[in-house]
Write a structure and sequence with these properties.
This protein has one domain (10-116): GMP Synthetase, Chain A, domain 3 (2-Layer Sandwich). Helix content is 32%, strand content 31%. It is built from two helices and six strands; from the N terminus they run ββββαββα. Strands 1-2-3-4 form a four-stranded mixed sheet. The chain has a two-stranded antiparallel sheet with strand order 5-6. The protein starts with 9 loop residues before the first strand and ends with a helix.
Amino acid sequence: MSDDKVETVRSSSSGTIGRANNSARNARVSFDSSSRPQADALTNSEAFLAAVSSCGVTLIEMHAQETGVKLAGMAVTIEGTRTAAQPNRFARVRMSFELNGIGQREAEALVETYRGR
């Protein structure tokens, strides 16, 4: 058996067309279709973007802690642009990082660590 890590998520009908229930381990969340968003749930596309940006937050915070960088907090904003011609894929994705409590050089090094992984 290899050392591969297997992540399993189960998605199922919610009883509302355009919404799916998702579970992994003991966590549960509902996502809406990007073409039929409701006000009370992320869309599939927003959930994908949130996964990418939250990875940036958690990776940078943990790396800062492990290397002794006194990061006071941070936020990542991500924007995905889809064209009308290809609405099923992102044409552009833009991320911006706001790191608090450290200098520009340390912030750039932390962001570069994220980009390199």
